[in-house]
Amino acid sequence: METKSIHWDGSSLHFLDQTALPGETVFRDTQDYSEVIEAIKKLRIRGAPLIGIAASYGMLLAARQFTTLGYDSFCNNMDASRAQMAASRPTAVNLFWALEQVKQVLRVQNTVDGSVNALEKLALEIHEDDRKRCNAIGTHGATLISDGDRILTHCNAGALATGGIGTALGAIFTAHDQGKNIHVYADETRPLLQGSRLTMWELQQTTIPSTLICDNTAAMTMRDKKVSLVITGADRIAANGDSVNKIGTYGLAIMAAHHGIPFYIAAPKSTIDMRVISGDEIPIEERGAEEVTTINGKRLAPEDVDVFAPAFDVTPNGLIHGIVTEDGICRAPYTESLSKLFAPT
Ligand code: MRU
Question: Is the Cβ–Cβ distance between 145 and 175 less than 8 Å?
């Protein structure tokens, strides 16, 4: 199952508005980079790899919007729009990874037209590359999945979050395609419900048996439904393997350890940030109180309550059995296994 969450037609960017799912399948199209920034901020475009892909297309749109300027003004405007793009969300490193590539590509250009062409080539490459990375993650991840497994996942790490079949869900889809009988439990993922709205939507388009649970049902599900594997995506992985993912992932890893269930992270190398030594250094986005106090505009809490709404948490490396990447499965000690991934060949 592969949903095209984003598509470049040569002049416009088309993207699926993930805030409208599952009720409506709304594709938006834009030629304006500031709409891409807005879409990332509002989670119309979301999921670490997809944010990186969208940022690269967004910078292509910016370049196309500045083509009437002289080369110096073009460069100044590109620097400013890259900074605006970088400020859209702080946690998923794929955003900064993609913007760094944009910067490097522009550095070796000296004309406006050359810059636009080079950015189009780059964005298409980043997109296609992510599709291939997902397939490879799926293949490696599926080796962890056995016939009869009951798998619990959190948030959405599927086709909607990437340029391909997904990471954690990619492993699940691949295992299913290999004929393994599996059952997936999806956490609803409060407060923005990526699990119930998006992961269940993706799973429903397959024949994989799946069950939606409230986040607070995870421990009981692990014990009573005999969950055999927990696998999630990640937004940023530190050099020591500490992994940042959607809020609630840390709790799941603790519960999995208590029940003796292996806990895996699946993510492309573009999600690994070797510049940060541990999870403590990763900025955790805090979102607006209204995302917790309201649903679809309906108030769930009294006015003016104090709210703590981190969008992500850090799962310490000691709780992680392995990190599935496109190049294979890294095991502890992660400082060694992750740095090998980036060693020159
Ligand atoms: O706030 P979101 O919906 O962008 O958070 C997404 C997640 O936490 C995903 O699990 C992560 O980006 C991995 S997507 C392959």
Answer: yes
Paired with 310 in beta bridges are 286
Q: Is the peptide bond before 268 cis (omega within 30 degrees of 0)?
A: no
Q: How far is the CA of 247 from the centre of ligand 1 (A)?
A: 10
- Residues 107 and 332: their CA atoms lie apart, in Å, by 38
The pair of structure tokens assigned to 249 is: 């992932």
Q: Is 129 a catalytic residue?
A: no
Encode pLDDT of 291-310 as tens digits.
Answer: 999 998 999 999 999 999 99
Any ligand 1 atom below 6 A from CB of 186: no
β-strand 243-246 against 312-315: which pairing, if any?
Answer: antiparallel
- For the CA of 158, the closest atom of ligand 1 is 15
Alpha carbon separation from 220 to 76, 215, 224, 241 (Å, rounded)? 55, 10, 6, 28
State if residue 49 touches ligand 1 by the CB under 6 angstroms criterion. Answer: yes
Residue nearest to atom 10 of ligand 1 (CA): 233
- From 235, 242, 273, 313, active-site residue: 235
- Closest atom of ligand 1 to CA, residue 194: 3
Q: What are the beta bridge partners of residue 298?
A: 295
Q: Are 266 and 168 in contact (CB under 8 A)?
A: yes
- Computed over every residue of the chain, the mean pLDDT equals 97
For residue 232, the CA-to-ligand 1 centroid distance in Å is 9
Task: State the CB neighbour count (10 A cutoff) for residue 82.
Answer: 20
| DSSP per-residue codes, 117-162 | HHHHHHHHHHHHHHHHHHHHHHHHHHTT--TT-EEEE-S--BGGGS
- pLDDT, one tens digit per residue, over 211-233 is 999 999 999 999 999 999 999 99
Dig out the tokens for 309 from the structure.
Answer: 């709404």
Q: Looking at the predicted structure, is the pLDDT value of residue 1 above 60?
A: no
By percentage, how much of the chain surpasses pLDDT 90? 98
Paired sense of beta strands 229-232 and 150-153, if any: parallel
